[in-house]
Amino acid sequence: MSTAEPLATTPLKVAVLGCGTVGTEVVRLLTDSADDLRARIGRPLELIGIAVRRAGRERPGIDPALLTTDAEKLVSSGADLVIEVIGGIEPARNLILTALKNGASVVTANKALLAQDGSTLFAAAEEAGVDLYFEAAVAGAIPIIRPLRESLVGDEITAVIGIVNGTTNFILDKMDTSGAGFAETLTEAQDLGYAEPDPTADIEGFDAAAKAAILSSLAFHTRVTSADVYREGITDVTSTDIASAKAMGCVVKAVAICQLTGPDANGERAVSVRTHPAMIPRHHPLASVGGAYNAVFVESKSAGRLMFYGPGAGGPPTASAVLGDVVTVARNRLRGAAGPGESSYAARPISSIDTVITRYHLSLEVTDVAGVLATIANCFADHGVSIQTVRQQGRGADAQLVIVTHPAPDAALSATVESLRELDVVVEVTSVMRVEGE
Amino acid sequence: MSTAEPLATTPLKVAVLGCGTVGTEVVRLLTDSADDLRARIGRPLELIGIAVRRAGRERPGIDPALLTTDAEKLVSSGADLVIEVIGGIEPARNLILTALKNGASVVTANKALLAQDGSTLFAAAEEAGVDLYFEAAVAGAIPIIRPLRESLVGDEITAVIGIVNGTTNFILDKMDTSGAGFAETLTEAQDLGYAEPDPTADIEGFDAAAKAAILSSLAFHTRVTSADVYREGITDVTSTDIASAKAMGCVVKAVAICQLTGPDANGERAVSVRTHPAMIPRHHPLASVGGAYNAVFVESKSAGRLMFYGPGAGGPPTASAVLGDVVTVARNRLRGAAGPGESSYAARPISSIDTVITRYHLSLEVTDVAGVLATIANCFADHGVSIQTVRQQGRGADAQLVIVTHPAPDAALSATVESLRELDVVVEVTSVMRVEGE
């Protein structure tokens, strides 16, 4: 303490909403790291209450006197900082709005809410002259919000490609190493605690879509909501897809892709945002992201290609991101300042998935390879889709064609798939997957 | 522009000091991206002057009317923001101090100055109530300063290990793939523009040491200067070292290592900072960082292991980092705020290299392997150093022993090497290198 000035002693009042995995860890850190936090902020933090749904539950290490079921009262009781880790839309949304209106700065990890109605929250924060920070909402402890919102704000970001859902990455990684199918691997992930009992938000891509909306809003200075994000889950990924990917030097990953497209003939640029499983070349930095880890790859005009990697979920990593925001927001408050607000001036249009230029990998079961290749090639040509490679597997009744296309508009590719399904020589289109990251 | 309020029109005045590779690119971006910068800041930026050493030189794309050789006058002429990209200690130091005293916020890429005398600059910024930002000082475009200073400020960082010098990484990577020696590879790097005509700052580790000082100051809330950093360059790395590393599944990298050590018997923790070549296991995330790329690996208590990767140098990437700071600092200025200042409250002691616990890889030329192993093993045991593996290469007069130790204090390891050199059975200690990253 030799170099520090005497610390001001009036504490900043902190209210915590939610006391699940993340909330418990946040409360623990606020207590255990109190001295360091005070030194870093310049003032002590005082925890004034923790809002929970059920008061009676046993919560080891948490002072029961701090617990309350009246969250509405807690956010109106003069807190300087409100930490929201309840998740979901309501009551989180109304509690945050009440907190902001009462002059509290808010730190939240709530990706679903930010992706659905971030603008309302940002407007309320702006009006009250307080902060709304949310580093924990995307990719857990990996600093990605601040880099996009501040470090790269002088640059032109052209793409953000992320593995932002640990559950689906864990499942796909397991399928890749074990050769097992989706359902079996999901059960294993649930047993190990890597997937929720109701895994819908993860495996159907809702969680990744929310994160993609947040990332693209920041990267492209444009309001993007979850409804703008094209979404496909991983439930249809088969062990055959994964084996096919291996055969072409790729790995299957659930990716969130945010791209600045164009300029078109009128000089207009648009935003394309989607999340779906995709085949990624094994030499791509994202390909080696294993287990429940997350990674975000950013391409920008001047900075070039950057990658951010780390644990994407879990109590302590998420709490680390929350606490970083708490210190920043507390410092801002003591200086009478506020950090960056919403930046949506570019207001770029959102592209339909139809116009996105991508590549497809297809597996077709066909009647006989030698006789049908010309018919199939014509079908691709009719839709203006160029074939990059064709590989034959098996013979006669078991004949399979594996086709990888050149980049083409997604609409042309899906129309090709529709037409292929109607061909007599095609028994079944067994797999269709986008190829990304080249 | 549909959602934006009418923009205020009074410009913020910007002065640029230095017009080399980075400065030229900064000026170009200030001009080409003026509309975006205005929208992101909320005010236009007005470039009021560029200080250069020689006025007569041809500078394509730069308005000659902006050039001045009177930098002192430029920083005293009412600039809101001063961008310093001259580098070196003087005149940069005095110009920055003058700018701060005159109420300008400063954005700098000057690692040498920050590592030598950062505290003076921070104190001047604090006194004037303005900002001192320096994202470009370490690892080019990779956001690492802001993540350490803000995102992870609620966590306890225990280690930062970085490949922070692109020149040495390029040389070692080339030596690894080509099998060529150091001198030859340096010449090649110079021909390709990856190494300076005078490469001392890079190959002797001065550049990496400055960056290590900055990173450890931020990570450990302690003043660390370049003088505190233990430093070894890469000039003694041989193709034999690189082949030895390969044989044990490692790669040789020049690393900057910042560690929080302890707690010792008195509960004290210290800071250890060093830069030197080291053998890194090929499966470590830093091992695959190739060419002139940089990467920084961070370990912290709650967040776990994070990695940041990207281009570490060059005009456009460095300018991207500078412009990100310019926007942040300009926004702060319009809100009457300032970002984080120096945080050195922890004031931890700096460990001597002697006490650092590390591992050594040694190659010894010995008279005859069978007869001498016991003598050599005794020599290690006498210094309390435990051997992990011994590998024999060649026979008789060409006999080589390759030894890897268990972790031990550096002083014990270097004393062992001294004793080995005095043994009759040891013809030569041909290589000594630390093994890191496990």
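qc> Confidence is low (pLDDT under 50) at residues 1-6 of chain B.
qc> done
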